[in-house]
Write a structure and sequence with these properties.
mainly alpha
């Protein structure tokens, strides 16, 4: 089986698992929205945002470096295993050190949620080389099982606890269980086992790749979790609850599409990184498919938003309708943005992503703060949409230096099709 056939097969299995996750996510969100109050969702979202901010100490894209590196896999994965474990030490120290500040600025409950989630998420460092192995080898039949069963079990436990009246702790328990499942299942599915083959040269190569990605990780937190932090800190956890629900429902379909495509696209791009023509064709195929599907979904989400939220979630969630609709630009463009970024990671051109994110971080910090404090959660929805629009323009400008692309071929036919529909 050649690389193209394997990539198509991988998209198929990856797509099945993420489509099932999409169904799980929508159904569970509807049920939980009726069982819990907005503040419960806001508390967990704020805690996750704080934890992810501290997690920049360990999230340095080691898995991307390993996928990118085309050399002795056994030594590379063993080196990754020990590096991942080592990086958990400063992360957990920072979580414990920040606890007094979190209690003083927020509440002891938020601090407890941060600590529990941080400890549970640290377990995944054990299985990170195993999931990287599946990604690098395009073993998405195994990953389909991994991505399908874990969320299903964690959602089931969350719903049971929510029905029992555990409120915010039902959401926390679901996340903890998912972290545990993410740790155990890859180890069972992957035949590779770590050895004591820690290679200093490989570790140095990984660090050289990741040192440039470290700044990207800091920027990533601002882009993907900074909005929750700003809303939760200045508008409160109740407002953040409405914002989180709007974000989840508007972004969930296109986010799953992005995960399906990019989970396969990056390993494919990495294998084709030295073949400009083949890489260009692969990118155009992935990108045009993403735009076509996401444009159709986004338009319909805007149309059905008021009725969907009122009927399915209940009238207590109506304050989230406008935010839901304003987030559609963000939901539409994020998969396009992520797919373009995979090219730069594959070709180790991280400077382009850094240039792009400098502008985006500026928009979130200053534009997000100003718009949210003036217009509430709707203002933050405008800010993240603007951030993503600017990001796509900048990325596609730099993309033309690395591959041959047709903007017309990628964007025009899908939007014409949606307009006609």
């Amino acid at each position: 089986m050649n690389l193209a056939q394997k990539a198509v097969k991988s998209v198929f299995f990856h797509g099945i698992s993420h489509n099932l996750n999409l169904i799980y996510g929508v159904i569970s969100s509807i049920i939980l929205a009726r069982l819990l109050i907005p503040e419960d969702f806001g508390k967990v979202a704020l805690a996750v945002s704080i934890m992810e901010m501290i997690a920049r100490l360990r999230n340095i894209s080691i898995e991307s470096a390993v996928i990118h590196k085309q050399s002795d896999e056994k030594r590379v994965f063993s080196t990754q295993f020990f590096l991942s474990l080592f990086l958990e030490i400063p992360f957990l120290i920072a979580v414990l050190g920040s606890r007094p500040f979190i209690i003083g600025r927020y509440t002891r409950e938020i601090a407890n949620i941060v600590l529990i989630l941080a400890v549970a998420s640290s377990l995944r460092s054990i299985s990170l080389p195993f999931t990287t192995w599946m990604q690098k080898n395009l073993e998405y039949k195994k990953m389909a099982l991994f991505f399908t069963l874990g969320p299903l079990i964690s959602i089931a436990i969350t719903l049971i606890l929510a029905f029992q009246g555990f409120s915010v702790w039902s959401l926390v328990a679901g996340r903890v269980l998912n972290y545990i499942f993410d740790t155990i299942v890859p180890i069972i599915l992957v035949p590779w086992r770590p050895s004591w083959d820690f290679d200093i040269e490989i570790a140095r190569d990984i660090w050289q790749y990741c040192s440039r990605a470290l700044l990207l990780e800091i920027f990533s937190w601002v882009m993907w979790a900074g909005d929750d932090f700003i809303v939760g800190t200045w508008l409160g956890t109740n407002a953040l609850g409405y914002y989180t629900m709007a974000w989840n429902l508007s972004s969930l379909p296109t986010q799953k599409i992005s995960q399906v495509v990019d989970g396969v696209a990056f390993p494919t791009y990495s294998k084709l990184q030295y073949d400009r023509l083949a890489l260009s064709h692969a990118f155009i195929n992935f990108a045009s498919s993403v735009v076509r599907i996401c444009a159709f979904i986004s338009v319909w989400l805007v149309i059905i938003a008021p009725e969907f939220i009122s009927i399915m979630l209940g009238k207590k969630w109506l304050p989230a309708v406008a935010t839901f609709q304003f987030m559609i630009l963000y939901a539409l463009l994020r998969p396009v943005y992520e797919n373009a970024g995979s090219i730069f990671f594959a070709k180790n051109k991280l400077q382009y992503i850094i240039y792009c994110r400098i502008f985006q971080v500026f928009i979130i910090i200053f534009g997000g703060y100003y718009l949210s404090t003036r217009f509430g959660i709707e203002g933050m929805a405008w800010a993240i949409g603007l951030m993503m629009f600017v990001g796509v323009i900048i990325k596609y400008y730099f993309l033309q230096r690395e591959i041959d692309i047709s903007i017309h071929e990628i964007f025009i036919p899908p939007f014409i099709g949606v307009a006609v529909t």
